[in-house]
Design brief:
Structural class: alpha/beta
Number of strands: 6
Protein name: BTB domain-containing protein
Order of helices and strands: EEEHHEHHHHHHHEEHHH
Shape: elongated
Strand content: 5-15%
Radius of gyration: 31 Å
Organism: Serendipita vermifera MAFF 305830
InterPro entries: SKP1/BTB/POZ_sf (IPR011333)
Length: 316
């Protein structure tokens, strides 16, 4: 059987990263998609214990390129002779160029750190865990709360936590950030229902757990709405004097309360809807809001406790 002709297999040519060009540093990192990044060996070892140990041990994974051939030295030009240049050491990594570029910008103080990006943040955090870059982990904790760059639709000033808390929860759970995971869970419980529809890769058990916490919060508010709908004031039946027109208005009000809670089960939204002004057909008709004023005072304290209590998270 004829041997395969390897010369026919296409090879990907090497490219030098524009942000870390040839000659920028004394060490080279080769990405999985054949882009070479040049950076200071000292900076790599200082930022990453993994690279530091690699340099200390002189691991065989670092391939030192051959020196360029030196020219024949002649006595007459010894005084102007230059030392032959040596190509930097190089190591191949599994990360693509896009992730390496962002990672190295966190390491090199001469570069500006790029804004948090929903598409690449997972790969960046995985690289940070692999190379033990604690500064990237801490950066994500703070950055996810204040700003996020959205592909094709940048919205300055809106945090990843407010836009996609489900992604924050998935990443915080994966990378052992318990405090951030609790904040994300609180944002999901009281946030818009659409937040649970985001396409995020996370353990099914964790998704069901946080969905259950949100459902429990909704059920608590529905029980309060039930109290209002059944015309019960502090457990006692009441008989308000209202006409048919106001009765229909009140039914619509209760329905709107229910829709509000399904959309976002928070005390702020509930209280705003309960105390919203309603039309009346004549003065003194339809004073049903006053019937739950005392209840609202009690409920406000209960809601404050529920919304301030850190949710319990179970390991998936």
């Amino acid at each position: 059987m004829a041997e395969p002709n390897n010369s026919l297999v296409p090879t990907v040519p090497l490219r030098h990263a524009a942000s870390f060009p040839e000659g920028y540093g004394d060490f080279a990192l080769l990405s999985s998609d054949k882009v070479v990044f040049h950076i200071s060996k000292f900076l790599l070892g200082y930022a990453s214990p993994v690279f530091s140990d690699m340099f200390d041990l002189g691991t065989s994974s670092i391939v030192e390129n051959e020196e360029r051939p030196s020219s024949v030295l002649e006595p007459q030009n010894l005084d102007v002779m230059e030392t032959p240049k040596q190509s930097p050491q190089q190591v191949s990594l599994e990360e693509p160029a896009l992730i390496l570029d962002q990672m190295l910008k966190h390491i090199d103080p001469k570069h500006s750190i790029e804004p948090l990006n929903e598409i690449t943040i997972g790969g960046l955090l995985e690289a940070a865990r692999k190379y033990q870059l604690a500064t990237i982990m801490e950066w994500f904790k703070s950055e996810s709360m204040k700003y996020c760059e959205y592909p094709d639709n940048p919205i300055p000033g809106k945090s990843l936590m407010s836009r996609n808390p489900l992604l924050v929860l998935a990443l915080a759970n994966e990378y052992d950030m318990s405090s951030l995971a609790q904040q994300a869970t609180c944002a999901i419980i009281g946030g818009e229902a659409a937040l649970l529809q985001k396409d995020v890769n996370m353990p099914l058990k964790l998704y069901r757990h946080v969905s259950g916490l949100r459902d429990a919060r909704i059920q608590w508010y529905l029980s309060l709405i039930g109290t209002i709908a059944n015309k019960r004031h502090r457990g006692k039946p009441v008989q308000p004097t209202i006409c048919l027109t106001c009765s229909a208005t009140r039914s619509g009000w209760v329905h709107q309360l229910t829709e509000t809670i399904f959309a976002a089960p928070t005390w702020k939204r509930f209280h705003a809807e309960v105390t919203s002004p309603l039309p009346r057909c004549r003065p003194g008709c339809g004073e049903w809001q006053a019937q739950v004023e005392e209840d609202m005072m009690v409920w406000s304290h209960e809601a404050a406790v529920k919304e301030s209590m850190p949710p319990l998270l179970t390991a998936p």
